[in-house]
Design brief:
- This protein is mainly alpha-helical and 604 residues long.
- Among the domains are: 6-77, Serine Threonine Protein Phosphatase 5, Tetratricopeptide repeat; 322-595, Rossmann fold (3-Layer(aba) Sandwich), CATH 3.40.50.300.
- It contains 31 helices and 5 strands.
- Helix 13 runs antiparallel to helix 14 (229-242).
- The longest helix is centred in the C-terminal third of the chain and has 21 residues, at 489-509.
- It is elongated and about 90 Å long.
- The protein starts with 5 loop residues before the first helix and ends in a 9-residue tail after the last helix.
């Protein structure tokens, strides 16, 4: 309390302590005593919070909550706290901690200060300390819903989803229409793949907050994932009725692929793009959605311009260096030699259940996954990140590709342990007793050396698409995160070439290890290619694999709606509409383009 001296503050704290000592035997008298303190010192925040505590004891919960929230708002606006908050928001965590602890010496029971210390601890990776501080903030001020929400996010980010849901129940009991709590509950249920419960949570969100466009867009994404396309379209359109510039909804509709935009959509998107109040990320989403809408209207020149603008803006956010992946794969080829694998022939886990599907994005990997997941002996999971986690954890301080330096140093026991760990870690995504499962993380081709070392009995399926068709499909798809090579045509060409170098190397050192198929052959000769694929896996042919579009499993990738329809040639030749603009892609591909689907004859 900045307006009183240290002696006055000490006297006020003594008076408050005596007042609160009355609470157990006479709440009414305690209230009178606290109110007497506030009459003389209305800005003494510990007394305001004490009054809330007394009111809550008397059963006046709404009054207590209001007094508590007002006290917190007043405290946050104080200069000493504001200075700490400014340092925290600037990322100056050490300075923020010094300032907030100085503030706590004046007001040790300030819940906002406890919350800030919790946020600082969380950012520093001190998870137990962060949780304790978040919980302390909620105990000091039960009406401080921001502290409850911080605790929820901390539990969610720690993988403790059920605990997070229980805390959300506390928030929603206090405020049933709390938008953030309703949204978090639905999102966590989606993360847990509890889709029926998530659907009900979204319906509750819409009933209580019907004008929340983001909630409708998020619900639409879940509906798309579980195959309820018509409901997804309706939910996206509802979001746009509420907010015509809602970028998530436009982008979501564009990602459905099967939705065709009309002229009214093009005009609405143009207006949204021109708005000055649109954030940077949303502006990128809108650019890609406008590209899709213009493509649907066969206005290819303007569509390419829209895609290019979205790509330009995104590349500014996530600069990409092609040399990094080139160097990574060069090291992979030097490390993972025929001699290296021969020396470790009988190493690794004995597990035979993983089936890895690798490719570049937009090459048909989701289609292959859906075909295999329709076989009665194979469970389809999703894009799992466990192989990458194992690689990065093996050399956490070494940067990109450092895992390849560690790989030859691993003992037989460690190699087996890592393979078994992968199998155990991925069980959380398996919900049937089928003996085989797919891991459809396209970028796992980078980690082929690790996979072969720790899981020598795993199968690898490489699905490849014409480099121009694949390249343009990547350029015209905003992935939102992780696929940073896709925002420049030359980068895409270099990336495709590097991917082929890796495949050619492993075909040379481990002949027959990888099963290759092309998207074009899979579309044109589906039954023969599926039979060849199952033969590689050592599994009997099953007609259900040809009726993959009847499989109602959840699919999380942008191709989700396409694999719920029978195979057709639509999209294979789409890149030809953009041929005049794709020169940088063709130039970067060089001999790879001339020899597709084979490798160029020399070391390319």
């Amino acid at each position: 309390m900045a307006s009183v001296s240290g002696k006055e503050r000490s006297d006020l704290n003594d008076h408050l302590h005596r007042a609160m000592a009355l609470l157990e035997r006479d709440p009414a008298q305690a209230r009178q005593a606290v109110e007497a303190i506030l009459a003389g010192a209305p800005d003494f925040l510990p007394a305001r919070r004490a009054l809330a505590h007394v009111l809550r004891r008397q059963g006046n919960h709404s009054g207590a909550d209001q007094v508590e929230r007002d006290a917190i708002a007043a405290g946050i606006s104080r200069a000493a706290f504001a200075e700490a908050q400014q340092a925290f928001q600037a990322g100056e965590l050490e300075q923020a901690e010094v300032l907030v602890r100085k503030h706590l010496r004046q007001d040790p029971l300030d819940p906002a200060a406890a919350l800030m210390l919790g946020e600082i601890a969380a950012r520093c990776g001190a998870k137990p300390e962060a949780e304790n501080l978040f919980r302390r903030a909620t105990l000091l001020a039960p009406a401080y819903l921001e502290a409850w929400i911080a605790l929820v996010k901390h539990l969610r980010d720690s993988g403790r989803y059920q605990d997070a849901l229980e805390v959300l129940g506390e928030v929603l009991t206090r405020k049933p229409d709390h938008l953030q709590a309703l949204s978090l509950r639905a999102a966590i249920l989606v993360q847990l793949r509890r889709f029926d419960e998530a659907d009900s949570a979204f319906l509750d969100l819409h009933a209580r907050c019907p004008q929340d466009a983001r909630g409708w867009a998020n619900h639409a994404f879940m509906l798309k994932t579980v195959g309820r396309q018509d409901d997804a379209v309706q939910a996206y359109r509802t979001a746009l009725d509420i907010d015509p510039a809602n970028a998530q909804a436009w982008w979501g509709l564009a990602n459905l692929k099967t939705v065709r935009f009309g002229e009214a959509d093009v005009e609405a998107l143009r207006l949204a793009v021109e708005r000055q109040d649109v954030g940077a990320d949303d502006r990128i989403h809108l650019a890609y959605a406008l590209g899709k809408a213009l493509d649907d209207r066969r206005n290819f020149a303007e569509a390419f311009a829209a895609y290019s603008e979205g790509a330009r803006q995104r590349l500014e956010q996530v600069p990409y260096d092609p040399a990094k992946v080139t160097d990574h794969i060069a090291k992979s080829r030097r490390t993972c030699t025929a001699d290296y694998f021969a020396e470790r022939r009988d190493w690794g886990s004995s597990a035979r259940d993983p089936i890895f599907i690798v490719s570049l994005p937009r090459s048909g990997s989701t289609l292959v996954e859906q075909i295999l997941a329709s076989h009665p002996l194979i469970e389809g999971t999703e894009e799992l990140r466990d192989i990458e986690r194992i690689a990065l954890a093996s050399a956490p301080d070494g940067g990109t590709g450092a895992w390849l330096d560690m790989l030859p140093t691993l003992s037989r026991e460690k190699v087996r342990e890592l393979g078994d760990h992968y199998v155990e870690a991925t069980r959380r995504f398996r919900h049937t007793d089928r003996p085989f499962f797919t891991d459809k993380m396209p970028s796992n081709w980078v980690f082929l050396g690790l996979i072969r070392t720790i899981l020598p009995n795993a199968r690898i399926i490489d699905i490849r698409r014409h480099p121009m068709g694949c390249g343009f499909a990547n350029f015209s798809q905003h992935f939102n995160w992780g696929i940073n090579f896709s925002y420049d045509l030359a980068h895409i060409g270099h990336f495709y070439t590097t991917y082929l170098r890796q495949m050619a190397h492993f075909d040379a050192v481990l002949p027959g290890y990888i099963h290759h198929l092309t998207y074009e052959n899979l579309v044109q000769n589906t039954e023969a290619e599926v039979a060849r694929l199952l033969d590689y896996l050592g599994l009997p042919f099953d007609e259900a694999c040809l009726r993959f579009f009847e499989n109602d499993r959840a699919v999380y990738t942008p191709s989700s709606e396409q694999v719920r329809s029978p195979i057709n040639r639509e999209g294979i030749e789409r890149w030809h509409n953009y041929r005049p603009f794709l020169g940088p892609l063709a130039d970067a591909l060089g001999p790879v383009l001339d020899h597709y689907p084979d490798y160029p004859p020399n070391d390319f």
